[in-house]
Amino acid sequence: MNIDMLPIEIVGLKAELTRTVDILRQLGFVQIETLADMGEISARPLSLAPEILRSQEEMSVLLARIEGLLDLLPGEPFTQREFSMPQNPLEEARENIETLLPKVQHLTAQQEKLKAELSSLPRYEATLRKLLPIIPSSARRPGNVTVGVLVSRLHVGVLDSIGKKIMDMTEGLADVIASDVGSSTHAMLVVFPQEFTAEVETMLGREDVSRLRLPAELGQGPPDVILGTLQHRINTIPLELKDLERQMALISKEWSLKLAAWRRALQEALEKNAILSHFGETDQTFVIGGWVPDKYFPELIAELKDAVGETVLVRRLALTAEMKKQAPIILKNPAAAQPFESLVNLLALPRYGRIDPTQLMAFFLPIFFGMILGDIGYGLVLLALSLTFTRRIQPGTARDILKVLAIGAGWSVVFGVLYGEAFGTLGEHWGLHAVWFDRASSEHVAGLLVMTLAVGAVHLTLGLVLGVLEAARDKSRGHLLERGGMLVGLISLFILVGALSGYLPDELKTPAWAGMLTGITLLGASMGWLGVLMGPIEFIGLIGNLLSYLRIAAIGLASVYLAKVANDIAGMAGNLVVGAIIAVLIHALNLVLGAFSPTIHSLRLHYVEFFRKFYEGGGRAYQPYKSNF
Amino acid sequence: MESGIGIGLTAIGAGLAVGLAAIGTGLAQARIGSAGAGVIAEKPEALGTIILLVAIPETMVILGFAVAAMILLLGG
Q1: pLDDT of residue B45
Q2: Residue A13: helix, strand or coil by DSSP?
Q3: How many distinct helices (H) and strands (E) make up chain A?
Q4: How far apart are CA A421 and CA A83, in angstroms?
Q5: pLDDT one-digit tens code per residue, A382-396
């Protein structure tokens, strides 16, 4: 079922536009459409005043800056209740952001720089420590420069050549000392008078060697002096970071709530303006088109009249067949069937005015689930688990699926009693006997298969009857022939099977053959000339659909035998504790499969076998214009 | 002895009916499933359609099961 919707047109004086939009937003039940989608209405698109466009642009930029600031400032996200809305958020934001943003960006940049420095310093410390033992005394003499060079051990010969060149260049005034500083690296320290710096640097630049380059913050000097500075930095950077964090926390304390309030105000203002692009206008009036649930129509008229007066008119548009195709849909089902809406929507939302299969699914799906799982023990455990988790999670698809699982688990207990199963064959040890039949015993397997085919026959026939009714309502000849042909052929097939197996009189064989041929002919006729070939193929496909219901038996039997295996292996263990552990593990696995597999397969039987006979998805969800805050 | 061989062959036949159909279904579902996972990553709202597409080849293994059941119930 779906709620009746009305297409409407709202026309008013342009002076009342803002007030009207506010009222519609406050009411929150009108779905506003672009005028092009509301066929009957003719008006040119509303052109927005340049000052509105400018203000929108300014608000978007401000909003981006505020969001950037809130990302940078420390603290938890805010809830709506924590802040009060400012009187003039746009003005306040405009005044303060320009000064606040550079300040926060500067502090953040400083933090990043210090963190990067803190993470790189220990690497330099390790290298410098290895150089300490080889520092010559000349390194501390004023007027001398110390340079470090690193090469791979494989190219250690290069250092000798460089050392020789430096000695020549400085006329023997330099000190050159080399040593291993790692498993694969060799280092050389060169101390020379300051006046040779340019020549030495040029020569080292020409040689393809790595210089030991240290951050500028550590200053110049021999390695031991630099190491001292480095250790001092390692100790002081955390303190500087703490100070920066304190400053950020102070800013956050002072501004975060205000920023959050401005952000909300700007988001609301932008959202309000965004809807204006859907409106139309004449010289003096604005025009709004949209949909409203039938039951809210009188309230809409009354509220607009109260708030705006007689200058705004609401007109009900004709709900033509063309309009119905575009109408948004609100499903209306009894509370017990509502969780199944999510499963129907998982495939596609029904179209407005067409069959909503939710209630049919709510009836059949849990029964299929129960027929497949059919175990008192598993059913009770699943029921307890699904009810427990249902209460703990937020409303939504996951919660709906858990509710569906709970109903299915209830049916599983019912079929468990009928089949006489509790944790597979364990029930037998407690004196449990099948009320109907034991599906795992070889003499009942044939009966089980026939039962599932019978269920499939009912399900498919119902789907085809609904399909025929839909086709008749649409006056769609092709669909009527196709679904009618399938229905006639299928019913004739049932009669034929009944007559062949002796359950029905022998005289029915000929009419049944004739009926089946008629059905196939009708089915073929719906496809034109191709139908000569496709008609019989489609009918075979229909039989395939029917056989597909055998999965109810097949998956159910797999579950029973896995449970039996769990019990038998546990019995063979010879030790109570080990046996219990084995049984619990295998039963737990079976329970997980028992929750997942019957759900998926029952869903498949609905989506593929049942829905395809009548269901037409592709509906549009109802999205009324309202505040999202 | 003959009946023993007969039972064995019947069981092998039934096993092949389900097993080969299951391999076919598995191959089809592997291809559809991997393509479907890509689609869901791009369009999560297509989940229902993908479940439907993945579920379609299962008919093969169910038909295999039907044939196996017929072999065992009618032939055995």
Answers
A1: 82
A2: strand
A3: 19, 12
A4: 59
A5: 999 999 999 899 888
Query: How many Å apart are CA A512 and CA A490, to the nearest integer?
Result: 10
Chain B positions in Cβ-Cβ contact with residue A347 (cut-off 8 Å): 48-49, 52
Least Cα distance to A150 among A179, A113, A188, A114 occurs for A188
Chain B residue at shortest CA distance from A543:
B63
Residue of A361, A501, A548 for testing the chain B interface, max B β-carbons within 10 Å: A548
Confidence (pLDDT) at A81: 55
Model pLDDT for residues A257-283, shown as the tens digit of each residue? 888 888 888 888 888 888 888 899 988
- In sequence order, which residues have a C-beta less than 8 Å from that of residue A394 and are 6 or more positions away? none
Instruction: Assess: ipTM above 0.90.
Output: no
Query: Rounded distance, CA A146 to CA A169, Å?
Result: 15
Write out the DSSP string of A420-445.
Answer: T-STTTHHHHTT---SS--TTSHHHH
Measured CA to CA in angstroms, residue A559 lies from A152, A373, A593 at distances of 66, 7, 8
Interface size A-B, in CB pairs within 8 Å, comes to 50
CB A98: neighbour CB atoms within 10 A? 10
Q: For residue A5, what are its two tokens?
A: 């919707």
Closest CA–CA distance from residue B72 to any residue of chain A (Å): 10
Domains present along chain A, CATH in parentheses: 5-48+274-328 (3.30.70.240), 49-125+223-273 (1.20.1460.20), 136-221 (3.30.70.2750), 358-613 (no CATH)
pTM here? Answer: 0.72
Angle at B29 between CA A370 and CA A412, to 5 degrees: 5
Tell me the C-alpha distance between A223 and A213, whole Å. 11
Helix residue ranges, H only, A283-425:
297-307, 321-326, 339-347, 358-373, 376-392, 397-419
User: What residue spans define the domains of chain B?
Assistant: 25-76
Neighbours of A477 (CB within 10 A): 11
Residue carrying structure tokens 């399909």: A467
Residues of chain B with pLDDT under 70: 1-2, 76
CB of A526 within 8 A of CB of A467?
Answer: no
Q: Is A117:A170 a contact under the CB 8 Å cutoff?
A: no
A617 pLDDT higher than 70: yes
Q: How many CB atoms lie within 10 A of CB A311?
A: 16
